[in-house]
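hi support,

uploading two proteins for the ticket. first:
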Amino acid sequence: MARAVLNGIEIDYTVSGEYHRVQGGGLVGNNYGVFFSAPLPIFNRNQGHKVEAAALISQARMRREFLEQIIRSEVQSAYARYEAARSAAATFEQGVIARSTENIRVIRAAYELGQFQITDLLSEHRRLLDSQREYTETLAEQYRALADLQAALGGPLMR
């Protein structure tokens, strides 16, 4: 059995041969035969390939929708993280660090006048350093979230 493709349609065909020697009644003869057989696709409207193609299209559509949903989720998550970190960094910049710096200035002046001990001044310095460390961690998270957002979007953001 062999297979041929004609106009995009696969056809299975068979070619065979036959030989017979006939003897009897004083007669001797040889019979030869060649046979060719192929199905005629009269009722074949390629339904199998059509169903397979429709299934592949449906599968590709579902895969695309799934990936779109994942990307949308990643973008929303990265953007929410970025906005939260940006807001926290702004709070540190506009309030916490400025207030701590001002507190150190006031406590240092009061310490010089003898109203506070050195431990009070050192405690306030420690709070300022803690605030600066937290501010640095917040900036790092902001940049990580921005990098994740750019990765989810597939490129750098326009500014």
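and the second one:
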Amino acid sequence: MQHLTWSRLALIAAGAAVLAWAITRTALGSGYTPLPVPCSVAAVAVAAAAAALVVAWPVRQYQHGRRPGLDGLRAARAAGLALATAYAGSILAGSFGGYALGLAPEWGHAPRREVALSALVAAAGGVVMVVCGWIAEHWCRTQGPGDGQGQARGPAPRVEPGTAHRGAAHIHAADHGASRHMAGHLVSQRGGTLAP
């Protein structure tokens, strides 16, 4: 999973804007009447942006060690939702921005000016999706170069001073005892004795 880049998002938005502008100008030239964009489009866009932030917030808490035991699958889903939100927002912003740009020559006509304004409001909702998706994806990024992308990584476990040395001593003692037991078993099978 690749991280978001502003250049990729801008390229997607620009492509959608050019396509929407061309379609709008062609439709107007053919005599079609432009339709206003419902306000619900911007409302749904803002709601989707907020949902991406809410889902990614526990991952950010986990990154800072405040939410231990977070499921890795949940973190991956949060990262995927953040990516989808940003990409959908760039398409939305570019499409309705291009629609408004195509209506710009008709700005003097009041009904079409209202249609252009409704398109700009919807494009603003797409920009909100891009920004919130970017923030949410940033919260889900790992800090280490060897970690997987788009997944959360918790703090490293704390090791008390002297724990490693005591553990090594216990392992050495256990290996030494096992070796003496094995040697004693072999000698006893041969009828000999094992010196202490």
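thanks. also noticed: The radius of gyration is 31 Å.
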